[in-house]
Amino acid sequence: MVENRPFLTILSHVVVLIGVAIIAFPVWMTFVASTHSQQTMLQSPIPIWPGPHLIENYAKVLTDGYGRVGSTPVMMTLTNSLIMALGVALGKIAISIISAFAIVYFRFPGRMYFFWAIFVTLMLPVEVRIVPTYGVVASLGMLDSYSGLIIPLIASATATFLFRQFFLSVPDELTEAARVDGASPMRFFWDILLPMSRTSIAAMFVIQFIYGWNQYLWPLLITTKESYYTVVMTVSRQANVVDSVPSWNLLMAMAMLAMLPPVLVVVFMQRQFVRGLVETEK
């Protein structure tokens, strides 16, 4: 039983509020900077309250980009990032859940060998695999394409492991009942396992969507056409200018727009995400 101590309650709330303030303050300053003019942002001290240029700055980066010649409109890069993130998330879930289903419910030679071969890939960081992966993608002619952005990233050992552990927790009586009723393996998977896995799928979707949205190194490597740039790439490219001072107000507006879709996914799927992490449906 937890003791009711007012001092500890107040202290815990103070610690939480301090933590929230530390995390939220950079985001607040980013938003503030995106609402001012460039001249204001180059003056000291930097303002800590929003300015009058919010609509102007956001409309400019959405339609015209950074404002320099050859800059990419953020609306297009947001679309590219959304396509990539959705493709990576849905592809990882589809491949992982089918792989876990085959490993758990089918008996074939080398079943556990294949599972551990998948699991061992967790020890290989992306940087180790990126050169041979690039060679394969280039040889297949998938550079500067959505398939090149998505397909090399859709295999996931982590998701396969999590779905396997969930399937192992499903009672054997349920499998036997489905077999007695004459359900085929795919019917059992589609009508029973898939509905039971919906919270796990939701949690995995949130994690993998954010993973796909935040990708920087792989899109930077395989894309040379601006029509396939992602928003994370664009923000980084505009920040690393060498011939002039970055337009911090426009850059911060781009950063805020880049943060918005992952935040919305987490907010709208928060309940399913938490249930998928803490509950086991049977």
TrEMBL record:
Keyword entries, A-Z: Cell inner membrane, Cell membrane, Membrane, Transmembrane, Transmembrane helix, Transport
Bilayer topology term: Multi-pass membrane protein
Ranges of residues in domain ABC transmembrane type-1: 78-269
Intracellular or extracellular location(s): Cell inner membrane; Cell membrane
One matching Pfam family: BPD_transp_1
Transmembrane feature ranges: 7-31, 82-106, 113-134, 146-167, 188-211, 250-269
Record-linked CDD domains: TM_PBP2
Subunit structure: The complex is composed of two ATP-binding proteins (UgpC), two transmembrane proteins (UgpA and UgpE) and a solute-binding protein (UgpB).
Family per record: Belongs to the binding-protein-dependent transport system permease family.
Function: Part of the ABC transporter complex UgpBAEC involved in sn-glycerol-3-phosphate (G3P) import. Probably responsible for the translocation of the substrate across the membrane.
Protein name, UniProt field: sn-glycerol-3-phosphate transport system permease protein UgpE
Gene for this chain: ugpE
